[in-house]
Amino acid sequence: MKVCIACGRGKPKEDFPCIKLDKRRNKVRRNVCRECYNAAHRTPEAREQHRKQSGARNDYEKRREYYKEWHIKHNIGRLELLAGRPRPLVCDVCGKPPPSNKLGVAFDHDHETGAFRGWLCGPCNSALGLVQDDPERLEALAAYLRSHASGS
Fold first, then answer.
1. pLDDT given for residue 140 in this prediction
2. What tens digit of pLDDT does each residue of 23-76 get?
3. How far apart are CA 32 and CA 9, in angstroms?
């Protein structure tokens, strides 16, 4: 018999879930019976609370941040070699520094040939992607903006 610390009832040890095996291959069991454990972890809020207490989410976030920084650090040098020039602090198109993020300016390349075109901030890079690198569409958009400019 083992007493559950949640409900205080004595139950057979088989009612307590096995956590792991110790060095002597003996089962190490929870101090909470299966019924109480399941009731406590049944709701999404309870599961999230358990995850926060265990630190699993924090470890995931730390690893994710570490690999993101590692990727930036190691790939930027490779991209600078491909570009043939160092990465600037400002966008080649608009001349503005990129919005506040760790990535800085992006390596822009022709998707058909793979040739380097320049270093672009996020908004300029997104604009090129949205118009599918079509100069005529960009010119049409510029003409549209000029014709509808306030004060004209």
1. 95
2. 888 888 888 888 888 887 777 887 777 666 666 556 777 788 888 777 777 777
3. 10
Q: Which tokens hold the place of 115?
A: 């040739």
Q: Which residues touch 123 (CB under 8 Å, ≥6 apart)?
A: 94, 99
Rounded to two decimals, the pTM is 0.50
Rg from Cα positions in the chain: 29
Q: Domain 2-50 is in which class? A: alpha beta
Domain spans of the chain, in order of start = 2-50, 57-147
8 Å CB contact between 120 and 93: yes
Contacts within 8 Å (CB) and 24+ apart, 136-140: none
Handedness of CA 21, 25, 28, 29 (dihedral sign): positive
Cα(59)–Cα(63) distance, rounded to whole angstroms? 6
Domain 57-147 coded CATH 3.50.50.60:
no
Q: What is the pLDDT of residue 35?
A: 86
- CA–CA separation, 80 and 53 (whole Å): 43
Q: How far apart are CA 92 and CA 121, in angstroms?
A: 8
